[in-house]
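Researcher: Structure for this, please.
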Amino acid sequence: MERKSRSITNRASGVAAVLSFLTQPIPGADELLVVGIHYYLVVRLARSRGASVVDLPWRSLQRIVWYGAGARLVGNFSLGLVPVVGMFSNAVTAIALTEYLARWLDEYLEHPDQPPPEVTLDGLKQIFANALKKKKGEATEPEKEREAP
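Model: Predicted structure, token format:
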């Protein structure tokens, strides 16, 4: 990913994470805010690479954005019941989805003749599961170190 694209993606990921963390107690609010951030991200990345926004593969991009929002909403109802854990998991999934969207679009813009694989709901579920496992693994490693003599 180019330096400018990385900067745009990092900024969008940070804003999405903070908004998701703060609005987590309101069901569905964070998903709607993150959807807007994702469309903004798509337009910014395309313009920074000199691509026409009209010529983007909108069906695939919409799948990433809306399947991701749906998967995050479902996850919100399960982990959202635990106050602090729900807030952190919401922020982590917002970052994971934003990163995935940016990388997918970057790959498409880099090689439009060989686009990345089509997005599926199962693929997005796997991304969220991996992101939450990584976050959980980071939190439990220091505890394991303390237990070892």
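Researcher: Any notable elements?
Model: Residues 83-110 form the longest helix (28 residues). Residues 139-149 have pLDDT under 50 and may be disordered.
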